[in-house]
Amino acid sequence: MKKLLLCIAVLTFLYSCGKKDRGELVGAPGKKWHPEKPYGMTLVPGGSFIMGKPDDDVAQLYNAPTKTATVRSFYMDETEITNSQYRQFVEWVKDSVVRTRLAILADEMQLTPDDGGIGEYAFLDADTTNMTEYEKYMFNNYVGLGPTGYEGRKLNKKIKIEWSTSKYPDQYYAEVMDSMYIPVDQTYNGRRTIDVNKLVFKYQWRDINAAVQSKTRKDKNFLRDEELKIYPDTTVWIRDFEYSYNEPMHNDYFWHQAYGEYPVVGVTWNQARAFCEWRTLLKNGYQKSRGLQPVNNFRLPTEAEWEYAARGGLESATYPWGGPYILNDRGCFMANFKPLRGDYAADEALYTVEAKSYDPNDYNLYNMAGNVAEWTNSSYDPNSYEYVSTMNPNAYDTDNKRKVIRGGSWKDVAYFLQVSTRAFEYQDTARSYIGFRTVQDYMGTEATSGKQSVFKKQRK
């Protein structure tokens, strides 16, 4: 009997050691999370500030009364999103559209990689030999539910897209590529360009605010499908300025590498938001391929976040560099705007300047005043400061199509460069003086306790 009890005790001990938790509440297993500063972003440590206009409102709009607000920590792009960065988005969409069209035609012609030519671009799930049982289940039960009948099919991204007509592998490939360009009768000077209307980005998002206010709270009722053309409207350089010669900007500004590091313009609020969704998709696709945890979504900043970041830790400052003057001690302008009764060239810039121009503020953010005004996530209501929360305030309303823009631009007078000045534009409108930058929530609380030391560590 004693031997039996001894054996039971030993087995119990071994079992306890094997589990390592000794029967204690130690939490579910998981990898330790280490915050990673996104490329090109800076950490804005959370805190409180006086939001609104501390001085007289010379425009007498009275839409920004002073209010103490607190925001959580977040990462923000050091510069406005540039033409080069937005072109990466455009190229990704163009590549995806072409691959999808090639795969669909290959599927319709019942061609596989073994057939060569366009068959090399067939959907990867066309051959189910190496698919897991779960993948077979998903393929058999969820394919064909969308409007094209090919939703959920996996594209083959390992095969290079050939853009040179002399290298087209077969006539089917030529047929697909031909459909991506403007019609032959619309070409000029021997140039046949991509039909930008074909560059469409699709994504889904959850309307959490509507879900919270609903009694059913079923996710499927609050999934929103978005589908939009993502190429910037380059005609803004003509439409925004009647009786003015700006054709060179219309022709070259977005696509020419000479302007690669300049801020993208001609982008609507809807397109800026789509860019955020794509950037999240791009990053989390990489995270998944490496077996890493997903990161928080990239998004547009709220109006309060933008103002807090623009102030750079300076209380009641008129401009990002302090205030209230727009010239430094050497008599040089501190930003790109319209000074001196319309002398656009007085600040050494006629239109926009490179995104990393002038001195950054104390959060290492460039051009938070001037250059281009910036879209925010917030809807514009002149009375919103009266009712928004003091913690992470944001007046977001899907029914309100007027969205707040901040910071002023190269064509604005100094008043619009003030960190507290509010303006708006309609979310489906593009302008030659409006761009954007993105933010990402910081996961953790360390950045708000002793924020200066954490911020300096991030700068290093």
UniProtKB/TrEMBL annotation:
SUPFAM superfamilies xrefs: C-type lectin-like (SSF56436)
Lineage of the species this protein comes from: Bacteria, Pseudomonadati, Bacteroidota, Flavobacteriia, Flavobacteriales
Organism: Imtechella halotolerans K1
Residue ranges annotated for the Sulfatase-modifying factor enzyme-like domain, each copy included: 40-439
InterPro entries (UniProt xref): CTDL_fold (IPR016187), Glid_motil-assoc_lipo_GldK (IPR019866), Sulfatase_Mod_Factor_Kinase (IPR051043), SUMF_dom (IPR005532), SUMF_sf (IPR042095)
Keyword terms of this UniProt record: Lipoprotein
Protein's recorded name: Gliding motility membrane lipoprotein
GO MF, any single term: formylglycine-generating oxidase activity
